[in-house]
Write a structure and sequence with these properties.
Enoyl-CoA hydratase/isomerase family protein, 11 helices, Lyase 2-enoyl-coa Hydratase, Chain  A, domain 2, Enoyl-CoA_hydra_C, isomerase activity, six-stranded mixed sheet, 263 residues, 2-enoyl-CoA Hydratase, Chain A, domain 1, alpha/beta, four-stranded mixed sheet
Length: 263
Amino acid sequence: MYTPFFIEETGPDGIARITLTRVDVHNAFNDALISELTSALKGMEEDPRVRMVILAARGRSFSAGADLNWMKEMAGYKESENLKDARGLAELMRTLNELSKPTMALVQGAAFGGGVGLVACCDIALASEEASFCLSEVRLGLIPAVISPYVIAAMGQRAARRYFLTAERFPAQEAYRLGLVHELVPAEDLETRGKRLAQVILAGGPAAQRESKDLIFAVSGKAIDETLIEDTAVRIARLRKSPEGREGVNAFLEKRKPDWAQD
């Protein structure tokens, strides 16, 4: 059976890697890729061996967004069938965005439409200096609907008001300036930098990282009132008395690595 991506075996370091492999269509989405990628991510969420997930791609493009042949097929669907497909893509984006484990995108080439959504849903995004980005939907008479919450959170409303409307292709340098990606790396160094940063991530406590991601979602956009202040106090108090919290503090005081970071 044709597989739209491959998953490297999770190693002893706990890094799971998904690489998109629909190179002939620039790693574009179709219903099979969306369904299988969502299932793979949910499996990694439940797999205790997985500490973090890296999302990468082969070929010239990271992802061209929706497969045009698939879109042509969907044009003949009823509205209810189109809604089902849209919900499938929305579930993929939500699953990636809400994964409790750290996620990293390695963007080696062009990311269009939903490909930009994948980048925005990852916690960390590294891009080759040769990468480019485009929210191209309006040129097809469409809108970047299900990816919009994540893209706007990543690059801001002001930038979205330009690039959603113009569908301009913009370079990696602009994506970096806007905050869509965190670092620009020479193309030949992208994998090496990704591996180095992954090791930095793995030095953190896994439970603390899960709690940190949940904290970000809980705090972002909220008014700083008594309810929020109390919630943050409860969170840190709970972590301080947790086994991981106690181990982390003791390891620091004893000048040793904590148990989750042992070689």
